[in-house]
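U., I forgot to send this yesterday:
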Amino acid sequence: MDGFLMWGFWDGHNYKAYSPIYDSDWNLKPAGEAYVDLVYNKWWTKDAKANTGADGSATIRGFCGDYDVTVTANGKTTTKMVAFHKGYDNVLEITVE
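Result:
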């Protein structure tokens, strides 16, 4: 999936009075609850932590987007802003000096 397309999300301003996300009083409807659960609880990449293996590599599951990656080694820390894109291997190499 690449994105969402919604033709109205609020009953108070939709060409039909039944939208999927909010009723006219801005209460979240069942489909809205499902949307929030999927996006913020299942698909959102939260803080992820990993320890490297003997070869110095680590793998973290995440979604496409921009990330601040912080690496600590031998008491030194460095942070890099990186972008992960769909369709690429998205291998990152960070040297801590």
